[in-house]
Amino acid sequence: MPQYNRIKLEESWKTALSAEFEQPYMQQLSNFLREEKQQGKVIYPPGGLIFNALNLTPLPKVKVVILGQDPYHGPGQAHGLSFSVPVGIKVPPSLLNMYKELQRDLNIPIAQHGCLQSWAEQGVLLLNTTLTVVQSQAGSHAKAGWQRFTDHIIDCVSAQQEHVVFMLWGAHARSKAQRIDASKHLLLSSVHPSPLSAYRGFIGNGHFSQCNKFLQRTGQTPIDWRLPELSSEQTELPL
Questions:
Q1: pTM
Q2: Out of 70, 155, 181, 224, which one is annotated catalytic?
Q3: What is the structure's pLDDT at 229?
């Protein structure tokens, strides 16, 4: 990818992915994104947040991977973390169902916002398998080359880390299971938390408690799934 050295990327990921950035498909992807912008298309998330998941969760600190598919394609929603939206943006339906399962599974009250950054900072890699999208066009960049890149990210985590929990929700995420070494990692699979399928097996799957039990069993600190409360100033934002 041209100007690779200018890309803002956390050092451990920069080392792990440096060769990948030099591959022809990544140069083609860079050209594709540039052409999309030149055509006046609005691309989400903003350029500085495309690698937000990697920048917030260095490779050596990855303990959990939650795989999403596409970034959100509405204004202000996507900020580079799967399922997450910035504070002040309405909580999307799939994330609300995740909160409902957290409440059922671990008695955690439903959060008043949708920003999952605190999870990322604890070692939860919130990775979409496609990292960009055109405004109002779901799946518009699904075949642009990102999936080869994010497959390599999954491969790096599987090979270089020990005892990681992979949460694979929905057919697309479950299709990545073959890339993961199940002899040393925990794979938790279910239907997707979207309203179309959540009550066919996502609500009730117990993945959040299973994850923490596995982390404790392997000598790791469990994830605090409770999200920070908003300040009085933030609570005035429309949710």
A1: 0.94
A2: 70
A3: 84
